[in-house]
Amino acid sequence: MSAKATLLKNASIVDGTGAPAWTGDLLLAGDTIIALALPGEIDQRLLQEHGNPQAIDCTGLVAAPGFIDVHTHDDAAALDKPDMLPKLSQGVTTVVVGNCGISLAPVVTDAPAAPLSLLGARQFRHATMAAYAQAVNAAQPGVNVAALLGHTALRMRHMSDLSQPANAGEREAMAAAMQEAMDAGALGLSSGVFYAEAYAADMEELVAVATVAARNGGVYATHIRDELAGILPALQEAAQTAKQSGLPLVLSHHKCAGPANWGRTQETLPLIEKMAKEQDISLDVYPYTAGSTVLREDLVDGIIDVLITGSQPHPEMVGRYIADIAREWSVSQQDACRRLMPGGACYFQMREDDVERVITHPLSMIGSDGLPHDERPHPRLWGAFPRVLACYWREKGLLRLEQAIHKMSGLSAMRFRLQGRGELKAGYAADVVLFDPKSVRDAATFEAPVQFSEGIEKVWVNGVLSYTAEGRATGDRAGRFLRRG
Ligand code: ZN
Ligand code: CU
């Protein structure tokens, strides 16, 4: 597939830096943005040099950097569902995989235990990050893939007893695997000490691995130990780990979960701001009041709604609420949960004012946290990015358009060290989304979660037109494994 030169004319250009929109033309050729200029002012010779490309009239449309989904679990999807339509159709051109401590590399198994099972069971065959990177390039997914190495995956590969902190030998083995991953271009380390399989990890263990990521210019993204009552000490622990290791910190899917915790972003955000004065801290967030993960009894409190997204023993219950299932079975909700396990669920554990505070916070960027292997996924998989535009920019007016785009592109590339991406700028990669600001919106809902978003007109990945609103995937997949820049 060849990337033809393309001229976008009269677009409203939102460049990803947060700078005000302006109307202009944009020339893409090969995999690169060649030039931006006021309407009609791109040098004629330059156009000739690139074979006088056909122009697309973009009047009334916004051209923005392709969105960067900084929080995904697309590790395996990039290999076995390489069209990556859930993401491409939102205008996403790059996904960061390996979040929450969960990555394919370096685990080799046919029967991954939770939480690794969130990635499905078929692709655990990459003993190194280099092997995973090669597999991504061989699959040539529809979007670019950049990867974190998961600490829980490291534990599963290198430790015999997950209920203990790593011993000296295990720490060494994990640090060596971290070095291999950084050499292969990984962005850094992720952890999910929230999950039982990593809960026993102590500071010494985390720092031993994180220090290796730090030495190589990596970042540290973490699903903190507690997003409920114990959130403040959990945030402090994450900051402490990053500080001791010398790493920039990304707090994953920041939220205050559970009714007893609602409203507490008024405490967490000031704490984060205070800590961010002394070290590099940012957040990612998805635009919904429900989270989603594996089925866990401790997350079923009998108060919040819990929607089943998958159940191995009871697939017939997928799409139903646990309260109804418990009533039907005449058991408690916790008992119902146990019977439905292993499986997944959406937990309506947040309140809208908290979500709004985090989304509008200057340190936050957008990450979907979508789960591509769920039978009936949380709608964030197909809708997170257009939803930020429709709901938080256009309807509620809580963000300026330029700010919203910045949180989906420029800021994300900066925080995750993705050089030459995330902005519309000459010399940068030609990852571009063209959308209709009047109609762009998510269509995926909890009832019908697999839905194309509206208003995403065209998406180019590395200069290749990969998605159009009329034809959906063009069939030309141009994603590649992105090394830390
Ligand atoms: Zn997580
Ligand atoms: Cu996650």
Write the layout of secondary structure elements.
Elements: E1 6-13, E2 22-29, E3 32-37, H1 44-49, E4 55-57, E5 62-65, E6 67-69, H2 77-80, H3 85-88, E7 92-97, H4 129-139, E8 144-150, H5 151-158, H6 168-183, E9 188-191, H7 196-199, H8 203-215, E10 219-222, H9 231-245, E11 249-251, H10 265-276, E12 281-285, E13 291-294, E14 306-311, H11 322-329, H12 333-340, E15 343-347, H13 352-360, E16 364-366, H14 380-395, H15 401-406, H16 410-415, E17 432-435, E18 456-461, E19 464-468, E20 472-473
Parallel strand pairs: 1-4, 1-5, 6-7, 7-8, 8-9, 9-10, 10-11, 11-12, 12-16
Antiparallel strand pairs: 1-2, 2-3, 5-17, 13-15, 14-15, 17-18, 18-19, 19-20
This protein binds zinc ion (ZN) and copper (II) ion.
Structural class: alpha/beta
Rounded to the nearest angstrom, the distance between the terminal CA atoms is 25 Å
Biggest β-sheet: count, sense, barrel? 9 strands, mixed
Bound molecules: zinc ion, copper (II) ion
Q: CATH-wise, what's the superfamily of the largest domain?
A: Metal-dependent hydrolases
The geometry reads as: globular
- Domain count: the total is 3
Share of helix among residues?
Answer: 25-40%
Mean pLDDT: 97
What's the total number of strands? Answer: 20
Q: What is the alpha-carbon Rg in Å?
A: 22 Å
In CATH, the architecture of the largest domain is Alpha-Beta Barrel
The unreliable regions are none
CATH class categorisation of the largest domain: Alpha Beta
What is the strand content?
15-25%
Return the CATH topology of the largest domain.
TIM Barrel
